[in-house]
Amino acid sequence: MIGLGARGMGLLRGIILHMEDVEVVAVCDLYEDRCEEAAGYVQETGTARPLVTTKYQEVVALPGLDAVVIGASWADHIHIAAACMEAGIYVASEVGGAYSVQECWKLVETYERTGVPCMIMENCCYGREELMVLNMVKQGVFGDIVHCAGGYHHDLREEIAYGIENRHYRLNNYIHRNCENYPTHELGPIAQILGINHGNRMVSLVSMSSKAKGMHEYVVRERGADSALAQTEFMQGDIVTTVIKCAHGETITITLDTTLPRYYSRGFTVRGTKGMYVEENHSIYIDGQHDEHHFDWKNQWGNADSFREQYEHPIWKKFISEGVKGGHGGMDWLVYSEFIECVKNGTDTPLDVYDMAAWMSISALSEESIALGGHPVAIPDFTNGKWMSR
């Protein structure tokens, strides 16, 4: 385990240490107290004390290591992943956005040279709603898919405002960058639906940002007008909207919305020629079935739960029968179970290095588009043409 902040520690305690076929042999973080805390949790399970280190290179150098879980800061994901692949170690990388297109190419080139799998641990791809909708798409329920939308609508003001105390890297990102900084929760499920990197790809984007006011107002109110952070200018706009064009004509809209007061939502929406799914009211609208409810969206056209018996995804049918467990409603357990099975069997991972590169690149590309006033920016083909037949 490399990176033991809130996410890394949560994974260790809530998922990894409960997997009977996993042994944690090393824990690593820049902060020694986090390492020691993690080592204590490992020893509480009755296993040997793991290697404790603040240098990820010492973890990568361990003989016989099967896999590494990367839960470090966004800026560290790709170079740690590359080092692991060079050492022949499977990589499970937590999510985030890239800082340059070049580092995404480095990720792909390292994989193609070493052949060592690297999986982006996008748990939302394993959400119950997302997988049921994917199943419905594959069965043609929504017809030809034309447009999808998603968002990271999550009030993070407290987390950002106390980033120094909590040793959280998000604060520096919100001070120094303005981009779609957390794209994969939105994009992951949509990429599965549109076959991105598997017969389709994202070709270009435009991104626009609102002004940045939410964090300043929050900091002044909660920390005082004389606090150091209140004198800081935040670069990150309160709302960032990115529109992506795909090779086969579909469009995707993703929205970053993390510094204004609001309820949590991922805004998952799928629009096709025969119907639509909308997460916001947990509803499905089918052409010819719900026509009389055109103006009745508040009461839901067709509650999505009524489609479960017919369209529940096989992954979730099995999960429910065995007993749902793990964080984020079970998504964490599913994504890590899938990864561990691939490590044990020596197989490729279902979410791979091409997905990781394409999804993470959106941060760097949106930053460029915003800086250019919403100018269109090309999205690289990280598969070098293999997307057409993968």
Automatic annotation (TrEMBL):
Q: Which InterPro entries match?
A: Gfo/Idh/MocA-like_OxRdtase_N, Gfo/Idh/MocA_oxidrdct_glycsds, Glyco_hydro_109_C, NAD(P)-bd_dom_sf
**A GO molecular-function descriptor:** nucleotide binding
Name of the protein: Glycosyl hydrolase
Any Pfam family hit: GFO_IDH_MocA
Name the cofactor(s) required for activity, per the record: NAD(+)
- Report the superkingdom from the record: Bacteria
List where the protein spans the membrane.
Answer: none
**Taxonomic lineage of the native organism:** Bacteria, Bacillati, Bacillota, Bacilli, Bacillales
The organism of origin for this protein: Paenibacillus rhizosphaerae
SUPFAM superfamilies documented for this protein = NAD(P)-binding Rossmann-fold domains
Q: Which UniProt keywords apply?
A: Glycosidase, Hydrolase, NAD
Q: Boundaries of each Glycosyl hydrolase 109 C-terminal domain copy?
A: 131-298
The similarity comment for this entry is: Belongs to the Gfo/Idh/MocA family. Glycosyl hydrolase 109 subfamily.
**All residue ranges annotated as the Gfo/Idh/MocA-like oxidoreductase N-terminal domain in the record:** 1-120
